[in-house]
Amino acid sequence: MAASKSTTLFLIILIACIVPQISSSRSRPQDWELIKNIGDPKIVSLAEFAIDEHAKVAHESLTLKKLHKAYYKVVTGTLYRLFFTATRDRHTRRYIALVLVKLDGSQKLLHFSEIALIKRVSNIN
Questions:
Q1: Which of 85, 106, 107, 118 has its CA 20 to 30 A from that of 76?
Q2: Signal peptide location in the record (predicted)?
C-alpha cells in the first residue's frame, strides 16, 4: 500500500513537471532563425521572386544587387524574411521582403517595402 502511494505521488509530480513544458513549447511561436549561407541559390531565388512579384504590382523595374541577410521561421510552410539591396534607375536602395513557401512548394509574397535609412544628425543647436 505504501509503495502504491509513493508511485502515485511520483507520477503526479512527474506529470506536473512535464505538462507545463509541453504546453509552453507549443504555444510559443518559433523565433526567426538566421540563414548563414545567403549565397544559397534557393535563398537568392526567393529574393528574385520577391522583386518580380513586386514589379507586377508596382510597375517598377528592380534588379537584385546583393542579399545582405535572410531569416526563416517554420509556420504552415516556411516564412522567409529577406534584407537586400536592389537598383532602380541606377540608384541602389535597401528593401525587406517576406516570402511564404507553402507546404506544396508554391511561393507567395506577403510584404515588400523599401527600408528608409535614418541618417544621424549631429551638431543640432
A1: 85
A2: 1-24
Residues 7-40 pLDDT 10s: 554 545 545 545 444 444 444 567 999 999 999 9
Asked whether residue 122 is domain-assigned, the answer is no
**Domain annotation covers residue 106:** yes
Cell of 123: 551638431
Share of the chain above pLDDT 90, in %: 61
pLDDT of residue 30: 75
Lowest mean per-residue pLDDT among 80-84, 93-97, 117-121: 117-121
Range of the domain at 80: 33-114
End-to-end CA distance of the chain: 83
Exposed/middle/buried for residue 13 (C-beta within 10 Å: 0-12, 13-18, 19+): exposed
Q: What's the CATH number where 105 sits?
A: 3.10.450.10
18, part of any domain: no
53 assigned to some structural domain: yes
Q: How many domains does the chain have?
A: 1
